[in-house]
Amino acid sequence: MLNINIKNKIPVGLTALCLVSLFGLKDTGIFVNEHVQTTYSGNKVYFEAGEVAEIVEKVEDGYIVSKGKAKVTIPVEKIQVTESETTTYKVVKNTSIKDSNGQIIRSLFLGEEVVLVEDLGENLVVRSEDNVKGQVSKSNLEFVGTEVAKFDAPKIETKDSNVVKIETLEQEEREIAETARNKNVESVNTDRVEENIPSNNEKANEAIDLALNNLGATYVYGATGDGGFDCSGLIYSVYKEKLGVNLPRSSSEQSSYGAQVSRNNLMPGDLVFFNTSGGGVSHVGIYMGNDNFVHASSGQGKVMVSSLSEDYYNSRYVNATRVL
């Protein structure tokens, strides 16, 4: 289902073009599966299934997505757009589309409409109906309107085969899914939860100490210690880089690694997982005992200690694994 909120009227023909191929300044989407993208500088940027994608622009190869200070191109099949905002301007004075060096790309005719790509202040980066992109002086344009198109978010299910299935939910299915989330239905298969699994207390305590050494460190998307951590990056740093446990990188993959343990059988050093995005496991921490766990919190922006009994985490708890 598609819902459209038109702040000012836009011609139908241009509307169709906008929805199909032109994306404005505030487009968002959801990653339908995990993805790792390497930047030009060689750094890796990690995205998890269900993570919100801040789309900067639609390009030939996919979407340019902003994460922290990084901007990377993501293949189209990795993202489902959930909201697209398109701002349109009309040419009211004779002008041209120019490149960044001021060279004319092509002339614009009076009354022609263009779609905003980026606001540079006195100049706007726009795209014409024939897909020509460049800069135009704002003084030669007149604001027409802004259109917001909202699309149904995908349902992301992690199967036993680790294949992520994407489905668009109808209203009845969305209501069922919401009810299930409210009742804390687990999204990870824990049918094979084992009890009485031995734990390496010495290694577990070392893992906790290593994590606690980073208390107050800044939460940084995709980071494993270089200037900060994201939630799974903290786990990856402690268990793989420090203790040599061959953990995968993302929280959803980590939730299936090791032996599944029940919540009432948690021991220090166990990994605890949460569904904070509504699309499956998306957060992880290290259980410390006494109902507490240490984690990198995106909401608080730092590494901190929280309680499993807090309403937020209690209602979003999914599963736990023992890797030591």
Automatic annotation (TrEMBL):
One of its GO terms (molecular function) is cysteine-type peptidase activity. The keyword Hydrolase applies. It comes from the Bacteria. It holds the Pfam family NLPC_P60. The keyword Zinc does not apply. One of its GO terms (biological process) is proteolysis. Residues 201-324 form the NlpC/P60 domain. Keywords: Hydrolase, Protease, Thiol protease. PANTHER family: MUREIN DD-ENDOPEPTIDASE MEPH-RELATED (PTHR47053). Belongs to the peptidase C40 family. This is NlpC/P60 family protein. It comes from Anaerosphaera aminiphila DSM 21120.
